Amino acid sequence: MVINSTLFSVRMHASRDQRHLSGAEDLVLGTEVGSAAQTMLRRAWTHLPQSVSVTIDQVDAAALVTGRLSDLTLASVVDVAAGRQRALSELQKSGVSLLAANRALVAIAAGAAPDGGVMRGAMLVDAGSGERLEPDQSRGVRVTRFGVTSATKVDCERLLAAHALTHHRTREALVLSAKVLAAPAVIAELCWSDDPDYTAGYVASKSGGYLRIPQLKNMGDSRGGRAFFLAAGSDPASAIHFLEQTPFLVTTIGAVHREEP
Ligand code: WAQ
Ligand code: MG
User: Domain tally for the chain?
Assistant: First the structure.
């Protein structure tokens, strides 16, 4: 029984000139640590890194939280402007104020770190006031110590492939967002990639699931990021602790729906 066996958090970070290139994260059995690390190193090497770190930590089994992937809905939008509009309305539906949603979107689009670059982690945004709550606006909050059981990973890949979603980013983002939405006070997430070739992103919320939006930025744009919206007025400390420390394992997949164009 997977849940009762010892699990290890395996994470990789590749960089060049202090700049983040690639990262990966998994929660695996001891017997799977070697292959998980190897898969991550292989990925790191495709980015021509100068420095790569792989960190392996046993996780506290007593603290383990298990969860399910959100249902994924494939949105259909005509361009980036429509994609961003859709993201704003989905966030509002999930209880985020237009002010807060718009502030987060504008910040990610501009480069949310103080120097206008990409943050390593996520912004925490008060869903009412739009105020940023993360202690370090350059690093942000890094979600770590999460993964998906190998059987569920296979099921997830098969389901996504049936909808032509074959990039590992989609599955990884689904898994990450499952942990984010399980965090205390978090009501929604907005994300798009910092990879200049990957224009898709999503809004995930407790109420609406994972809405995949194929165009949230233009090709060639290397700005991207994440914002986690906290219920208005909440203290970010317990959310930060959960996101960074609590081991979270996905054991069940969700469904996939497609919106008509
Ligand atoms: N914790 C918090 N924030 C993170 C983490 C993490 N573990 N990893 C990345 N980020 C932030 C950081 O600011 C990055 O710049 C930004 O998110 C984007 O990261 O359904 O690939 O790894 O196909 O480039 C969306 C998938 C893909 C859409 C997102 O993000 C789909 C993606 P990336
Ligand atoms: Mg990236």
Answer: 2
Q: Measuring from each residue's beta carbon to the nearest atom of ligand 1, which residues come in under 6 Å?
A: 23, 25, 118-119, 121-122, 142-143, 167, 169-170, 173, 176, 191, 193-195, 200-202, 212, 224-226
Are 52 and 87 in a shared domain? Answer: no
Does residue 140 share a domain with residue 236? yes
Same domain? For 46 and 114 the reply is no
Within this chain, do residues 55 and 71 fall inside the same structural domain, yes or no? no
Q: What is the pLDDT along the chain (261 residues), one digit of tens a residue?
A: 445 589 999 999 999 998 888 899 999 999 999 999 999 999 999 999 999 999 999 999 899 999 999 999 999 999 999 999 999 999 999 999 999 999 999 999 999 999 999 998 999 999 999 999 999 999 999 999 999 999 999 999 999 999 999 999 999 999 999 999 999 999 999 999 999 999 999 999 999 999 999 999 999 999 999 999 999 999 999 999 999 999 999 999 999 999 987
Which range marks the domain in which residue 80 is found?
66-258
d(CA 184, CA 65): 13
For residues 13 and 106, state if they share a domain: no
Residue 58's φ and ψ, nearest 5 degrees, are: -65, 140
Query: How many angstroms separate the CA atoms of 171 and 73, rounded?
Result: 13
Q: Atom 9 in ligand 1: which residue has the minimum CA distance?
A: 121
Q: In 6-107, which ranges are E strands?
A: 7-16, 19-29, 51-58, 65-68, 72-74
Dihedral, CA atoms, 142, 139, 111, 243, nearest 10 degrees?
20
Residues 13 and 108 in one domain: no
